[in-house]
Amino acid sequence: MTAHAPVEQDDSRLSAAQREAFEHLMAATERRLRDFLSDELATWTGTDPRAGTPVEAITRLVESGGKRLRPAFCVAGYLAGGGGPEGYDGVVSAAAALEVLHACALIHDDVMDQSDQRRGGPTAHVHHTGVHRRRGWQGDPERYGENVAILAGDLALIYSDRLMADAPATVLGLWSELRSELIIGQYMDVLAAAEFSADPQLARWIAVAKSGHYTIHRPLALGARLAGRTDLAAPFQEYGITVGEAFQLRDDLMDAFGTSEASGKPAGLDFDRHKMTLLMGLAMERDPRVRELFLDPSYGPEVLRALLVDNGVRDDVEDHIGQLVQKGCEALAEASLDDRWRGELRAMAHGVAFRDR
């Protein structure tokens, strides 16, 4: 099914100079990530060739691709706020910190979800479980793999702080809020799966904490703060939360109806793990049969997928995503922004909400 994307206007694209500045900062962020991780690997392998293993796990994930959404929104917030070349070093450090924090979240999330694939390759814990088995080491291979992944995720968290330390101190409060929201949101996600209560409001809160704030709102706010534009905090919050919710709903739909080949990670994992996603919360509120099927192991995922289509939940969620994007973009209408950057943020909202991978 094609996502019900609103027609997007193409009348406010960035100028050549604005696009060049954006691409320059994104390229500089990639160099910062590469150089930082390369230096760390050299430092630790110089101590002992085996000591670089956690750094290698982070590097493998960072270099495997990814959409770089968080750095992109941080850079966009800075440039949309009128930030100039004098602040480029600070925004590059912040953007790099956001991507390494994302690596921390993914590595730990894969362990908690028992996921075996990420970005088309084995997850960190699965990779190191295999290393243990191939080398015939002592102990439980799976426990070893999980231990390596947990430590690599912890190291990525430390590295994100080191990178952010090179940004101006004015953003450290926002940075602390972002990290706290991410961890608490992750805990509530684990709790919701354990309790398995059909609570759409809790599911929405988790989606906002884990996606709305962490993926879009806080990175945008960090960029704007680096540009000295505290007046953009309110419109960027409304935009970030609503578009972030749309982003999470798209993620839920891709898990439910997509393929592993398209997403680079296992499809249907939320069903298998009984995760109370935003999609499932909305579905259970609409149709009690969804909860019954979700809990009954005699029904396969295909039966549940068919029900979400037949009872109209899938189409309703597609429409809701469109409404969220519209609401988020409307929040920018009264903000003091260059029209071209307003248009670019609209395009970015459409990009995250109507993506197919």
Number of E-type strands: 2
Number of domains: 1
Question: What is the highest CATH level, the class?
Answer: Mainly Alpha
CATH superfamily membership: Farnesyl Diphosphate Synthase
Mind explaining what this structure looks like?
The chain is mostly helical and 357 residues long. It has a single domain (16-353), classed as Orthogonal Bundle (Farnesyl Diphosphate Synthase), CATH 1.10.600. Helices cover 73% and strands 1% of the residues. The protein contains 16 helices and two strands. The protein has a two-stranded antiparallel ribbon with strand order 1-2. A hairpin with a 2-residue loop joins strand 1 and strand 2. Residues 125-136 have a biased composition (Basic residues). GO terms for molecular function: metal ion binding; prenyltransferase activity. Residues 115-139 are annotated as: Disordered. Pfam families: polyprenyl_synt (PF00348). This is Geranylgeranyl pyrophosphate synthase.
Outline of the structure:
The chain is mainly α and 357 residues long.
List keywords for this structure.
flat; 1% strand; 73% helix; mainly alpha; disordered N terminus; 16 helices; 357 residues; Farnesyl Diphosphate Synthase; two-stranded antiparallel sheet
Could you give the topology of this structure?
Layout: H1 16-47, H2 53-62, H3 69-80, H4 88-113, E1 117-118, E2 121-122, H5 124-135, H6 141-164, H7 172-195, H8 200-226, H9 233-257, H10 260-263, H11 269-272, H12 278-286, H13 288-295, H14 301-310, H15 313-330, H16 339-353
Antiparallel strand pairs: 1-2
Helix pairs in contact: 1-2, 1-3, 1-4, 2-6, 3-4, 3-8, 3-16, 4-6, 4-7, 4-8, 5-6, 7-8, 8-9, 8-12, 9-15, 12-13, 13-14, 15-16
